[in-house]
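Hello again, I could really use a second opinion on something today. Take your time with it, there's no hurry, and the full record follows here:

___
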Amino acid sequence: MVLPALVLILVFSYVPMYGVLIAFQDYSVFKGMGDSPWVGLKHFRAFLASPELPLVMRNTIVISGLKLAIGFPAPIVLALMLNEVRSMAFKRVVQTVSYLPHFLSWVIVANFAFAMLSVDNGSVNMLLEKLHLIDKPIPFLSMPEHFWAIIVATNVWKEIGFASIVYLAAIAGIDPSLYEAAAIDGASRFRMAFQITLPCITPVVTVFFILAIGNLLNAGFEDLLLFSANPALRDVADVLDTYVYRMGISLNRYSFATAVGLLKAVVSVGLLVLANYWARRSGSSLW
């Protein structure tokens, strides 16, 4: 039963690793990997000396940090809230509505956000005008100071429901006798949530936190590419993944883009190992 999954991982995750060799070449599509000259660490040094590096790293770390700080605890809070709902019908409706956006493509989500934030008949601007909070529509989608908030908000809206499913499953496995004993002692539901529910799901939270730290340099790609179509947003939207796409696909610098992607992957593995080492000291870890 596991064999198809192993074959899938082998074909799509390990076989393509052969392609990272072009990071050490001046790769040409006409010569191929066999005849392209080897240049060692040339492209790595070029990236580390690039004047765009500080800006790209700032955007990557800030956007990833905001997604981690807001997007990571959000599904935990939602799971705790849903666990307290006693009406099963209402609980199912909320779960369905909250995790449905996960199955929408970023193209649909981006167009939905564009429609809401549009200057012409955008619902957000119309609401703010009705409340007399603004005098004229605000061009949210072309203002760099609003970009990070829009990206983080749309990511949280899209993923909060689906991510909460795992935590709800962990909560469902908690021994009910713990809540019964706490109720006999006079504990409120709020206190039970903090002294029983959260400690019991801490191992699951720790594992997902370790994975989140490992993905700290993965600030996003599709969402940032779609929301940053306006060149005015380049200074706040260009992250490592979009930088690799721009260098490799748009400018045909295949070796340079591969070197940047490989360097990012190595740093991500290092972050994962450090996060796991830190978590192991608290009793929960991936390995």
